[in-house]
Amino acid sequence: MNIIASLISIDPDLAEEVVEDLSVLFRASLSDANALPVPLEEELDLCRKYVHIESLRLDDRLEVEWQINVDTSSVRIPMLTLQPMLENAIYHGIQPLPKGGVVVVDISSDMGMLNLAISNPVAHDNSTHEHGNKMSLENTRRRLEVVYGPDASVVTHQDKQTFTIKIRYPLVLA
User: Fold this and answer.
1) Fold (topology level) of 2-173
2) Measuring CA to CA, how many Å separate 125 from each of 9, 56, 159?
3) Cα distances (angstroms) measured from residue 100 to each of 62, 121, 148
4) What's the rounded mean pLDDT across residues 129-133?
5) Among 116, 136, 31, 138, which residue's Cα sits nearest to residue 79?
């Protein structure tokens, strides 16, 4: 909201655009997360709107690299599977770093499974940064288990430079 307030006097068109992006995000967050899967392109549109808002806040400190190797119009994904993970990557990985960094979103499929991976840099000295409670990660894991059973997996890996979350579940096509 602070971004919108600051933009109103200097760039009202951009402020309106951000309000529209924010309203789409709010609508999605209020929708039934257990509803039928949506086309991946819808979830990616939601993610891009979120990144747009955050890029206004973080400026050139935020870069997102999209590696999408599936047909986004035919692949289905439970709504709000990818966006909360991207939000965490930006909040916990990019925001605490003075120089920012790159979040990599990698989407592929193999052997009838959809693979989603989000990687972000690790902030080593983030003593003043609020640590998460892994709630969105656990919520995503539970939602996928309800829909796909034991075929779904949500795993994380961290090394000295990178934190990665990998989500894998049966590929659903439209």
Assistant:
1) Heat Shock Protein 90 (3.30.565)
2) 36, 24, 15
3) 6, 9, 35
4) 58
5) 31
DSSP string over 141-171: HHHHHHHHGGG-EEEEEE-SSEEEEEEEEE-
User: What does the pLDDT read at residue 37?
Assistant: 85
Nearby residues of 54 by Cβ (< 8 Å), 6 or more positions away: 62, 90
- Residue 168 has which token pair? 């894998």
The phi and psi torsions of 79 (rounded to 5 degrees) equal -55, 145
Q: What is the pLDDT of residues 37-92, one digit of tens each?
A: 899 999 999 999 999 989 988 989 999 999 999 999 999 999 889 999 999 999 99
CA distance 146 to 34: 9
Q: Mean pLDDT over residues 107-119, rounded?
A: 97
CA-CA distance, 16 to 31, in Å (whole number)?
Answer: 23
For residue 117, the number of C-alpha atoms closer than 13 Å in the C-beta half-sphere is 16
pTM of the predicted structure, to 2 decimals: 0.81
Q: Any idea where the domains of the chain sit in the sequence? A: 2-173
